[in-house]
Amino acid sequence: MIPCALLLLALLSASLQAQEVCLLFSGEERGYLEPCGCAKPLLGGIAKRHTFLKSLSEPWLSVSLGDLVGGDTLAAGHLRRQDELKAETLIQALKIMNYSIHNLGEMDLDMGLEVLAYLFPPGPVTLLSSNIRLSGSHPDTPYTLEIVPYKVCEVGAGLTPAPVRAGLKPTPLRIGFLGILSPTLLGPSPMAGVTLPPGVEIIPPAEALPPLIKELKDKADVLVLLSHAPLEESLGLASDFPEFHLVASGHGADHPIVINKDNTWVSTPGIKGKHLVLYRYNPDKGSGVIETVTLDERLADSALMLSLLDNYQERLKEEKLLSRVERFPLPRQTSYVGSRACSPCHPAVFQHWGSTLHATAYETLLKAGRASDPECAACHVVGLNYVSGFQSQDISPDLTGVGCETCHGPGSLHIANAHRDRPSGPSNISPLERGDKGVRKDRSKDLSLQDGYGKVSPEGCKGCHDAEHGPTFQLESYWERVKHPAETPISTAVVR
Amino acid sequence: MKRGASIVLYITLICIGYYGREGLCNTEGGGATPPERSEGPGGATPGKIPRLTVPESIHSFGQIYRGEKVQHHFLLKNAGEAELEIKKVRPSCGCTAAVPSQNVVPPGGEAYVEVTFDSKNFVGKVTKTVMVDTNDPSEPTHTLTLEAFILEEVAAEPSRLTLGQIRQGEGRSLKVEVKSPTGMELKVSEAQSSSRALEITSIEKQADGLYAIKLEVKKDSPAGRFDGDLVVRTNSPRQPIITIPFFGEVVSDVSVFPPQLSFGLVRRGTGAVRQLLITFHNPGVRLVRVEVASASGGFPTEAQSALSGNPPQAEKVRETGPLPAEVFSLRRDPEGGSSSAPGGENYRMDVVLSKEAPVGRLEGSLEIHTTSISQPLITVPISATIKE
């Protein structure tokens, strides 16, 4: 009898409890659709994020904190058109994952108003900013682009015991979102980086927010500020506007951070969608719990998102982006010659190189289906961003993989120096070049000394083996894998 | 406690894994997978646990110059009674490399994590972190924090050139100033623009040691988007090259986005839709028609105008080629449609890839006919790859 009563009490109690709702925040996307396959562990990416979202049982609402793109624009292989394709793919992914809001970031503005108008048609993902306004009559803003100053989203049942008892229909919880873009991120100074486009006005948050907060007072049960600003500025806003339950900060923090500032939670999920911040709000308590989630390898990849990524890769191929990368002239009018050209004088080294993963780096990329991606190719071919560098497998087959010239630099001058010293010319170079007295003469040593070519610096390795693409890289152990064998000293090996 | 220190404390707290009152927890892998368990190395003695102590978890490099690579060794100690396993070190960004001196630290032993920070992409105050994952059950992840204030020996202002739209025939002159905030005697030896659309007209040394690089988008530049880098070579040993990315668009009467309509990989029988944005910058110019045109190796089709009829519905593309069905067709976007703006009318259109499209690479183009004298015809390449 007593257990039955307890069970009844528990059931009654449960029915009177409000359902928790979950607000989910992802940070600056920066065009990070998926982790590089070379990285370990594989963190983030839309395929893992989708799997996680599908696992949530309570009602949820997801919000993007700004900057669809904005990776290293000076990185090898970077192309603005690729950023646009990434942004388009991300928007598709956000729609599939039921995102409601994207808070405008400075890198979004840097894409231009035309691209923003294309990416954000009237639809489910709203572009939000409370302090950015478009001039309606400016000739430079002829686009149909709507940036809303706030958005109220309804989520969950939002039950409270009183209306249930009174037989009233439960109402959903109303979450009011406001969003700001820090003025410090726009302007000509190196600190800011992005210039405000013509026809766009930015208002200081302290001026823009008060009237909107007032307007939302009766329209929302919970107020959230999306702050595309450095963390310290977000903390200041949390202090200045205690009306906010939560300030979700989304600029410049690499890792998730959560701070309770004057009884307001300030959180950031970090960059590139590797982590998420979850705010589980309990309407009964009028407060929430914050959780951070790392999207790591234990989450399976969503098949739907994988097909979206395949689609994106094919678009890079269809638009031939690899052939559109910027190509800079090489210094001193040198040019790339391809690894095969090194083999006549350096047969042992060439043979050894052929057995390393460097030699098959392009095949690795082909197998991964990423050979048309300029950002990936930059570290799997020779000289992608240079005149005479890799163009395609058909045009420059000797420049695939991490070739000799990736580490040693373009080799044309080095070969020219060798030929100058050799009256017989290039056509007579052979792997076993005969010396005067029947002695095999390997000219690699003396040529290297003559023109200074061939010196490598460990710093060069870190261009590709960085923390994002090769976090397990350790120079000493990796060096052993690629270290060339000693070449046969001059005058010692007698040819039989 | 100062605000900066407070932030660092909280970063540390979240990485520890749990924070007080309302329950902040760091759930690795979320609810979808079981949380990671911290287990001791193979030979851990039952009842004995390792304990990581880090005398200094925060290191400030102070002021450093952009382009410098700086290094610091964080000392780690094992104050526990079992072996401490350093499972992973995870820098927060590609700019930071971290290598532990050893993977196992005996009880009472010491190790260090060598951290190298490359400042080439930063200016101003920077905070970077390195997460150290160990088998210490009380603190599975410990955060090491690096701070630096990065000065520029050579600075360009603006550091990015977002030129926006430039009306064809108007051109635009602009200036980039290159200076040394540190007061070094700066010399700019060369500047190059990687795009013909943005030409360098002069490099002038001014009285205060500042260099003014004057640039120009010519009045007769062709309509279209351009981007690239302005590369400036200086005598600074730390920053011998300054790169200033630029982006802009010369617009005439009409602009179209995207410049190429790629559908990418599409499964046979599913179809797809992409949008096209046509923007008129001259109110006197109108759209005449948009049609799908044939392409080499593609499918010769004769299209009807997508704008000739009023109802916002798909309009048919009449096939005259060998294809069994329509492949690309056009329709006005029922939601976007057309709208008026200060410059003129805008059109948002759907380009529809038919579910009947055959397997293989399909290529063609969209032809946009307008009443513009300078842009009577705009061609947008279109492509799709259909897979079984």
Compile the SSE list and pairings.
The complex is a heterodimer of chains A (496) and B (388).
Chain A: H1 2-16, E1 21-26, H2 46-55, E2 60-64, H3 80-96, E3 99-103, H4 106-110, H5 113-119, E4 126-128, E5 132-134, E6 150-155, H6 161-165, E7 173-181, E8 200-202, H7 205-216, E9 222-228, H8 231-240, E10 246-249, E11 257-261, E12 264-268, E13 275-282, E14 287-294, H9 303-318, H10 347-354, H11 361-367, H12 374-377, H13 404-408, H14 412-420, H15 444-451, H16 458-461, H17 475-482
Parallel strand pairs in A: 1-2, 2-3, 3-4, 7-9, 9-10, 10-12
Antiparallel strand pairs in A: 1-13, 5-8, 6-7, 11-12, 13-14
Helix pairs in contact in A: 3-9
Chain B: H1 3-16, E1 18-19, E2 24-28, E3 52-53, E4 58-65, E5 69-78, E6 84-91, E7 96-100, E8 104-105, E9 110-118, E10 124-134, E11 141-151, E12 155-157, E13 161-167, E14 172-179, E15 188-193, E16 198-205, E17 211-217, E18 224-234, E19 241-251, E20 254-257, E21 261-267, E22 272-280, E23 287-293, E24 301-303, E25 317-319, E26 328-332, E27 338-340, E28 345-353, E29 360-370, E30 377-387
Parallel strand pairs in B: 4-11, 13-19, 21-30
Antiparallel strand pairs in B: 1-2, 3-5, 5-9, 6-8, 6-10, 7-9, 10-11, 12-14, 14-17, 15-18, 16-17, 18-19, 20-22, 22-28, 23-29, 24-25, 26-28, 27-28, 29-30
